[in-house]
Amino acid sequence: MSDSTSNNTEGTSPPQPQRGLNIEALKQHVLSHKIDVALWATRIFTIMFTMGYFIPVFGNAHSSYYKALLSNAATSALRLHQRLGPVQFSRVFAAQLLTEDSCHYLFYSLIFIYVAPINMVILPVVLFAILHSASYSLTLLDSLGHNAWWGARLLISLVEFQSRNILRLISLTEIILMPFCVFLVLSGKVGLLTPFIYYHFLVQRYASRRNPYTRNMFHELRILLESTAAKPSMPGILRQILLGVVAFATKLAPPQMPAQPSPTATQ
Predict the structure, then answer these.
(1) Helix H segments across the chain?
(2) Ramachandran region of residue 105, left (φ > 0), alpha (ψ -120 to 50) or beta?
(3) Which chain regions cross the lipid bilayer (predicted)?
(4) 107 close to 201: Cβ distance less than 8 angstroms
């Protein structure tokens, strides 16, 4: 009788919840979102190669630097394919291509791929990679299970919390690189055409319809310089220099396009 009672108890016991990682769900997600996963992978490679450049434990630091730029170029090319589809040889397609932020950073990688490594150059690349890979890493973790890798989720939440500050830092770096390129020409470290080519990149960033951060940063810097020049203690010659810099930058600025801001700017 005890055996039958035991059997009945075993037969009516509630099913135990499944534990562990849902690998099958992750596989299905990867198969159905191949381009998104490829974008995530190239961004992870960008982060890894950047770490290899600054902390050259394995391999050559210079090689890691250029691999980071190439990974960024691959990310930009994949993103362009995802947004625009196959290449079309038409004026409309070319005009649309130049408005894409991914095209800007593909152009950015090509500008500096033949220049000696510059720490500041790789900063926007790796910050974009961190920002966007963190966002998609959360999607991958959700497919594994909502309780998977809580430590990684904490790091991702910190990155997303600082997303606006990261985008502002990227924009500030883009702007500072313009006079820095001029300085590098004078020091003989880059070619004479580099500042002119980079200027066109900066114009594209300023006119971006989806990412207003570079345009906003220019505005903030203008206010800062004008308020600094307006201080009574500011010597007259420095005041003229600051106001001259503002006037020169304003003259070079392209016509402002209507922005289409998004919570996280694209690359």
Answers:
(1) 2-11, 23-32, 34-54, 61-84, 91-98, 101-112, 119-144, 150-161, 163-186, 194-206, 213-229, 236-252
(2) alpha
(3) 37-55, 105-131, 176-201
(4) yes
3-class DSSP assignment, residue 107: helix
* Residue that has been written with the tokens 């810099």 in this structure: 245
How many CB atoms are located within 10 Å of the residue 58 CB?
7
Distance CA 215, CA 253 (A): 10
pLDDT at 13: 46
Q: What's the gap between Cα 188 and its chain centre?
A: 29
Cα of 209 vs its chain's centroid, Å: 16
Distance between CA atoms of 213 and 219, rounded to whole angstroms? 10
CA distance 11 to 125: 59
Residue count of the chain: 267
245 in Cβ contact with 225 (< 8 Å): yes
Can you list the residues of the chain whose pLDDT is less than 50? 1-18, 259, 261, 263
pTM over 0.85: no
Q: Where are the domains of the chain?
A: 23-210
- Dihedrals phi, psi of 99, to nearest 5 degrees: -85, -10
